[in-house]
Structure formats: structure tokens, C-alpha cells
Amino acid sequence: MIEQFQATFSDHIIAVEASDMPTFVIRKESVLPVLTQLFKEFKVQFLTDLCGIHYPDATPPMLGVVYHLHALTTNTRIRIKAFTPVSEPHFPSVVSLFSAANWMERETYDFFGIIFDGHPNLKRILNEDGMTYFPMRKEYPLEEGTRTDKDDAQFGREKIT
Amino acid sequence: MSNLVQAPEGVTGQGFFLTSVEKAVALARKNSIWPLPFATSCCGIEFMATMGSHYDFSRFGSERPSFSPRQADLLMVMGTVAKKLGPVLVQVYQQMAEPRWVLSMGACASSGGIFDTYSVLQGIDKVIPVDVYVPGCPPRPEQVIDGLMKIQDLVANESLRRRHSPEYKALLAGYGIE
Questions:
Q1: Is the pLDDT of residue B1 over 80?
Q2: Does the residue A155 lie in any domain?
Q3: Model pTM score
Q4: A33 at interface of B, judged by CB pairs closer than 8 A
Q5: Is residue B2 assigned to a domain?
């Protein structure tokens, strides 16, 4: 089935990664058509997970979305990845295909700031609404800046001024 | 009679006892503090031990943990408070009637504890005023009882007019609480 998949989508696939399960990197624009065809023709109808990833050191810095899919009829798992520059954090929403993607896309928006076009209710799901940043992007200090009781000398480092 | 509290200072005569209203009120308040447990995590479990028969929190007059803020005197915040929970905590505090006291139990409630991260409030004193901090992760029941007794001292020695003082109003205004 994987070979069949590879042949069918050869013009969408950018790269094939060696991994614990078949992993394909596709173009962002291909996400919705590929997942739709997978759903309808290959009966890949279970979205195990959807999450974001941030590569700040790539040129240009990239944001990615990883889809973990599972075909329950044949017990086949597929991982699909797609990337977009940080400057243009838009992705097509797959809620129309998988209802499970609703909250997962909200979570990915919440933590990575990836905007899923076509999502019915794209707002923060876990963090407070007033938050002005996307905490899982690798561009923020790990520690909370409002902390006042920490003595840096106790942590083996100079006082950060 | 050892389980009775001592009478305040006053003048005793045949058939009467004179003391100040302040001392009588303080005596009553001190020995009938109704706590509102705001327990979010492991400190809450430790508080359950404190409430249980072995440590017997009730003997300090806190027989009835009030799960309605409107009837509580003491807000006991026990455990990690996420930033998202901050406004909820403020609302609970606002619903309490004066006079009200706050006890912060454990490292997380007092300072954020090990959760030095974007999602956790770095101490509840960022959103509400706190009277007593109990350190520990989690504190032992003895420490919680010690904290409660510190609250009792505060209650017993508090001026009846403190809640009307400009300093107190300024304190609440500093937190944006009316």
C-alpha cells in the first residue's frame, strides 16, 4: 500500500524519510488534496495526532505540521510532514476531513501560532486568552521572566542583567 | 476545662465581666475561622491529611471547611496555580466577605515552585494579597497547622478598623481588587 501511495502522490512528495513508519514530506499546498485522497481511496481515516514543529535555525526559519495517520482497515500508519516559512504561518485546515483535528489544530495554533485557514473556531485552547506569544516556538527564554525569588548564583551562573 | 479558650483581659466582678469589644470579637473570630480550601494539586492532598482525624484541623475552630467563598474567612491556596486559573482565584477572593485572610501553602502557591515556566503564576501574591506563606513541597501537616496558628495570631491582633484603613484600601487597589 505504501508503494501504491508513493506512486500515486509522486508529484506531491518532496522527500521520503527513513523512520519507524513511512514518512513523507509534502508541499503545504498538497496537504488537503493528499489527505482527502488518502481518506477516500486508501481508507486512511484515523488522525492519530497532529502537531507543530519549529526549526528556528533553518534558512528561512520554518514551521512545520506533522500528521500521524492510521488506516484501521489495513493497520497501516503513515506520517505526513509539511513546512512553511515562519513569516507566512498559514496551513489549510483538515477539520473538514477529520473532526479530531479541531482541537489539535487549536492546540498547534496556541503553541506555535500556525494559522489554519478554514478552521471553524481557531482560538487558544490551553493557554490564557491574553497571551501575546506562542510559547513552544524556540525563540523565548525557558524561564518565566516575572520570577523574583531566584538567586542565579545558586544555579551556577552569573546574574543576568 | 482545658479545651476552652482563655478569657481575654478584663475586669471581673460579681456577676459581670468587662472587656473591650475588640478583644471579644478577636476571641470569637480567632477560634471560628472557616477555611475555604482552594486545592489544586499535591498540597491539597497534604491538606486532606491535615483535615483528617490524626492532625485534626477542626480543633482550631475550623470545623467547617466552607466550600462557598461567601461564608469563608480564610482562603487557603494549596498547589500550583496556572496563569489561566489566576482570574478564577481573584474572583473567589472577591466573593469572600471582609474580614478575609489568605494562606498560601507550598512552594508553588508561594512562588511558582519548580514550575518556572510560561504557563504558571509565579506566586499567588501576584494577583491577591497573602497573609501567611507556608513553605514546603509539600509542607507537612504540622507546618500547615503552624501556618493556621499564625493566621490565628493575625486575626486575634488585628484592629477592628484595619479593613477601613487607607493602607488596606491602597493594598487592595494595588491588586485592582475593589
A1: no
A2: no
A3: 0.82
A4: no
A5: no
